[in-house]
């Protein structure tokens, strides 16, 4: 668990978890590479997010949304936070139970879903204000914050042996059925069922 969490818990909302037993790769279960390039100069990106949405409705279907995201947003000028701003009611957004899901841009893992806050946070940016802690799903004037993975690559490398890092993806083809031991990146506060990012030993 990254113990440097701050700024509403979104900057370092990450942990590494090692599975006790190996995972079997298949055509539907694959290694997702972590992005190692700097954020593009154009500012925004269209990225995808998978999750079960409002889990209080007992919906067992996995949903995929396309979000327009930026590094920081408005008053949150922080490159370690990726942000999606919901502009109108009904737009796709993360929902209850989606924390920990991976934000995928250009087929690479870029960030991990942390939390949502209302845009009024910028009027009075004090995390201890309880009115900033709860937001609805698909509600306008909401920021959804994601922990950027790129600034944490050194932290990953410090914790995981170099030969276990999942940067050598050439061994993991789409139809591979080899066993793989991996590390799963999840949030430090929420335990989410989706398998997110893999750093792998191939056998």
From TrEMBL:
Under the cellular component aspect of Gene Ontology, which terms does the record hold? Answer: secretory granule
Q: Which residues form the Peptidase S1 domain?
A: 1-161
Disulfide bond is among the record's keywords: yes
Q: Which UniProt keywords apply?
A: Disulfide bond
MF GO annotations: serine-type endopeptidase activity
Q: Which GO terms describe its biological process?
A: regulation of systemic arterial blood pressure; zymogen activation
- Establish whether keyword Disulfide bond is in the entry: yes
Q: What is this protein called?
A: Granzyme k-like protein
**Source species of the chain:** Triatoma infestans (Assassin bug)
């Amino acid at each position: 668990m990254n113990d440097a969490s701050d700024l509403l818990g979104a900057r370092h909302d990450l942990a590494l978890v090692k599975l006790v037993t190996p995972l079997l790769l298949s055509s539907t279960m694959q290694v997702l590479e972590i992005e190692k390039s700097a954020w593009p100069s154009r500012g925004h990106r269209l990225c995808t997010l998978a999750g079960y949405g409002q889990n209080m409705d007992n919906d067992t279907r996995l949903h995929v949304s396309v979000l327009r995201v930026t590094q920081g947003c408005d008053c949150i000028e922080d490159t370690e936070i990726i942000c999606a701003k919901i502009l109108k009611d009904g737009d796709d957004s993360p929902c209850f139970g989606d924390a920990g899901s991976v934000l995928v841009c250009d087929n690479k893992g870029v960030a991990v879903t942390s939390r949502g806050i209302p845009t009024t946070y910028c009027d009075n940016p004090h995390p201890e204000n309880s009115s900033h802690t709860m937001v609805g799903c698909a509600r306008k004037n909401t920021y959804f914050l994601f922990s950027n993975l790129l600034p944490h690559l050194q932290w990953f490398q410090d914790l995981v042996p170099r030969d276990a890092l999942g940067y050598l993806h050439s061994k993991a083809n789409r139809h591979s059925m080899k066993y793989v031991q991996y590390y799963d990146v999840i949030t430090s506060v929420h335990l989410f069922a989706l398998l997110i990012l893999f750093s792998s030993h191939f056998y």
